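Lab meeting notes turned into a lecture example. A postdoc, R.K., suggested we walk through two folding results consecutively so the class can see how the record format repeats. The first protein's sequence and structure tokens come next.
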Amino acid sequence: MAGVELRQLRYFVAVAEELNFGRAAERLLIAGPSLSQQIKVLERDLGVRLFDRDRRSVSLTPAGAALLPHTRALLERADDLRRRAGRLSGSRAVRVGYVNWLPPDLASRTAAVARVHVDAWVAPSHTQAARVADGSLDLAVCWVRTEDLERLGLRAELIGADRVHAVAKGPDTADVRASDTDVLIDDDVTAWASWNVYAEDVARSTGSRPVRISDGGVTGPAFFDHVRRGSRPVLNCPKGQTTSLPPDLVRREVVAPRIHWTWSLVRRADEDRDGVLAVVDALCHGVGDLGIHATGSWLPAGDPFASPE
């Protein structure tokens, strides 16, 4: 037992709950072969086989089924210890950056586990992810792709999701197909790098028509001017739209497919500080899938939470 790690026990619980190594690896944000290898190491260290597996199915062995409730209880005690240590710790605050959205109950959910400082520098998603990678931030709420996580050495947990809608000239408020909408792509690749990547994928995958702009009008009053000048509904960017909808424009829900934008809580892959990990647990535990995997929903193929084909 001396070699058993809590991380491996979490892997065991995930596979036991999913009964599928691929889904468990996706949930844990690790590679499938790595997960399989860690389970084999755990079985070796425990001296028992936990799973029966072949090419078509995975099932718990009697030993695995007997150990599962004890493992869950052990992990709960470890999490409780981490929370208590966080309350006693005098270490520096956990630094959290964001783009334009944070969980509204962030302060109340993290108060018991760590001191949290929300960084005042609001920056684009790619900038905030890079700041986590270089240590300027401990955590950031932003939009990332799987390749960004791999390139920067980060891990992500789902913390929020927006259903992307369209804005149109009134009075018609009926649902609109994605292929009957426009999506704006701005020439400023510094400010709008993440949105542009996302928007281009939306256009390729859903048939929405890409419209090139150069005035930063992806959000704000300039966005509404684009809607007024065009003939089709325009997809609304959830990244920074804080301006209220003018009375001459209407919101229309997008269907076929229902388009989603995810918010990730990212941290460094090698992060091991209890305070940071406790904040991640406090903010992401019980979030669920927020509807992003419902029938008829769409995410970019590179989204870390997209279902495998």
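The second example is placed directly after the first for contrast:
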Amino acid sequence: MLSAKSLFQEIIDNDESFALFCSIAASGESQGGWENARIAALVPDGQRELAPRITRHGADEDKHGRIFNALMKKRGLAPVPVPHETDYTLLLEKHGIGLAHEKLKGEERLTVRDIIVYLAHSRVTEQRASEQMQLLRKHFADHPDLGRAVRMISADEDNHLAYCHEELLRLAHAGHGRTIQRTLRECALAEIRIYRDVSLAVMAHMGGILGWSRAKSAVLAAGIHAVYAWDRAAGWRRMVSLRMPRQRDALGGPANSAPEFA
């Protein structure tokens, strides 16, 4: 019977598919680290109190990239090229979600509107990341090789999501509520489409490596399309709601190191 646990177990048991999985994850996390570092450097004067939290966010993403690379190294594997169609972070930027890299490569200060775009983009993508890591934590928290990494990254993603809620609510209370809701909705609707396309591409590559039958691949593709249909109809709303998190100031301190991985 197909299940999330059995599928992921199949991927991690094979060196080639595991290397691809970790390479895709490491690439996305490292890109997120760079983006956050640049945003922290360009924060507008009126929002400078955000800079340490954005820096912490980026440091966490960099740490996650090192963890995925360390997991490969532990098995004697090297990173592999990431197929363009599986690059979630790159495709989001290409479709105008989040801040353009050209802007981040410059030296001009960002605006409050730019900070709202950054936080809305993070609110949506961290929702996805938090849910994915919760799924992995459910099935692999006690795995001898992956368990510690899964628990650490999952806790970080939950913190990132809490931070986005809190900062967006702060800006909403400052009079930016309509802009925030409009931006969140645009990000969410674009993200669910890109997530579907990336999921289909990743499954196609994994199926080729693992020799999945046409029937198995068709069932998995149908499942991905079903998730998209639900997200498009109603699920996107979970990505745009805002509530004050139980844990306040989740990114208020320095990033936790991961010496056992990197």
